[in-house]
């Protein structure tokens, strides 16, 4: 494994972890895993999630390759990453809003569809959730900028993209596996996780974006 590939993997790892810890997909997969059709809808949700992430990652990496191939500025990748990193920090601060005391947290109304979704609907909703989440899109753009600006072959870019998708998908894969293996044992834990994430999703996502934005910004400053 060449040094450029290892460096690129190291740079995108925090971004992939940030995507993986996005609260909405985790809440959605927990609702799916606790539904009456979990054994079929759970794997369908995972498939939609992985396909959606792979599609967006592929598009942003290809777009970054094209932009860098048409631009002669050697420092452009670092500049773009610096702007993205600062944008992630600002977005994280804007989202970091704890719920006021006495206010009961609530999920968006459309999330209730996961509680009774058929396999086909679970797949399509998961796919949509993965390609239309602005906060995840921001992190995936940072992935594309990082990979597109690195001296990698097409094969290496595919490997990095696969790594990002696998890491980003782990928190939705694990609840589905758990509910398939030991449903009675894991249901209380999943319900507790759903309740906690519903109450703290803004804080969790805001903190993640601030930390990852700071990492991206620091790395970009080091490359300038």
Q: Gist?
A:
The protein has 224 residues and is mostly helical.
Defining key terms:
mainly alpha; 8 helices; globular; 224 residues; single chain
Written overview of the protein:
The chain has 224 residues and is mainly alpha-helical. It has one domain (3-223). The chain has helices spanning 3-20, 23-33, 38-69, 76-95, 119-131, 134-148, 154-181, 183-223. The longest helix is centred in the last third of the chain and has 41 residues, at 183-223.
Mean pLDDT: 84
Order of helices and strands: HHHHHHHH
Number of helices: 8
Structural class: mainly alpha
Give the CA-CA distance, first to last residue: 26 Å
Shape: globular
Q: Report the β-strand fraction as a percent range.
A: under 5%
Secondary-structure map:
Layout: H1 3-20, H2 23-33, H3 38-69, H4 76-95, H5 119-131, H6 134-148, H7 154-181, H8 183-223
Helix pairs in contact: 1-6, 1-7, 1-8, 2-3, 2-5, 2-7, 2-8, 3-5, 3-6, 3-7, 4-6, 4-8, 7-8
């Amino acid at each position: 494994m060449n040094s450029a590939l290892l460096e690129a993997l190291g740079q995108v790892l925090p971004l992939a972890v940030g995507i993986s810890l996005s609260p909405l997909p985790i809440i959605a997969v927990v609702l799916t895993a606790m539904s009456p059709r979990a054994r079929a809808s759970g794997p369908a949700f995972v498939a939609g999630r992985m396909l959606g992430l792979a599609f967006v990652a592929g598009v942003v990496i290809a777009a970054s390759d094209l932009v860098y191939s048409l631009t002669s500025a050697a420092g452009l990748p670092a500049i773009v990453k610096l702007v993205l990193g600062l944008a992630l920090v600002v977005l994280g601060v804007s989202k970091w809003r704890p719920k006021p005391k006495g206010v009961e947290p609530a999920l968006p109304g459309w999330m209730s569809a996961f509680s009774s979704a058929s396999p086909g609907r679970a797949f399509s909703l998961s796919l949509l959730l993965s390609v239309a989440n602005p906060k995840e899109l921001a992190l995936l753009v940072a992935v594309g900028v990082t990979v597109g600006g690195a001296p990698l072959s097409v094969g290496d870019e595919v490997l990095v993209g696969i790594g990002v998708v696998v890491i980003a998908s782990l928190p939705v894969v694990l609840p589905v596996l758990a509910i398939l293996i030991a449903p009675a044992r894991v249901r209380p834990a999943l319900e507790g996780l759903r309740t906690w994430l519903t109450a703290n999703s803004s804080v969790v996502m805001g903190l993640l974006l601030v930390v990852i934005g700071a990492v991206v910004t620091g790395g970009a400053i080091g490359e300038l």
